[in-house]
Write a structure and sequence with these properties.
Layout lengths: L1 E3 L1 H9 L5 H6 L2 E4 H8 L5 H8 L5 E4 L7 H4 L3 H13 L3 E3 L3 H9 L4 E2 L1 H10 L5 H9 L7 H11 L1
Parallel strand pairs: 1-2, 1-4, 2-3, 4-5
Helix pairs in contact: 3-6
């Protein structure tokens, strides 16, 4: 079981690859703050439409906590995702933003991001990585061109 933050779910929906998550991990859990961000009026229409009818493999949890100093600097979705991963003893947390990844790793959580999910999905034969990366490039996803080139080079 994994916990996911907003950004990876958003981009996986936008590039048509969100179904790799249950294929690879079974259930995906998200905190209420992530649900709210995916449903917000400023979310991309395909994302809010997806969240309006969430798949059965997606669980939503209310998270209550007293944030410590390290968590206060993060966005609410990241903060709640880290707390939820700790509370559930998740095998993996999917986060894209570097500060959140650093905090999660520092708390002993195993972390991956959108690119890590795509790389693993490709290794399992679930997606065509070059095609998925090209679709990702058409979004607002931020990654260095070098990182994307290296990912594709590893794939070939």
């Amino acid at each position: 079981m994994i916990v996911a933050d907003t950004s990876p779910l958003c981009y996986l929906v936008l590039i048509g690859c969100v179904d790799v998550l249950p294929a690879m991990f079974g259930r995906v859990e998200i905190p209420g703050a992530v649900r709210d961000e995916l449903s917000a009026s400023d979310a991309p229409p395909p994302v809010s439409a997806w969240m309006a009818r969430p798949p059965e493999w997606l669980g939503v949890y209310a998270v209550e906590y007293e944030p410590d100093a390290a968590l206060r600097r993060l966005h609410s979705g990241e903060r709640e995702a880290i707390i939820l991963a700790e509370q559930l003893g998740a095998d993996l947390i999917v986060l894209d933003e570097k500060p959140a990844r650093r905090v999660a790793t520092g708390r002993g959580l195993r972390v991956t991001g959108t690119l890590g999910v795509l790389k693993e999905a490709s290794a399992r034969g679930l997606i065509d990585l070059p095609s998925a990366v090209e679709r990702l490039r058409q979004t607002t996803f931020r990654a260095s061109p070098r990182l994307l080139r290296n990912l594709l080079k590893e794939h070939s």
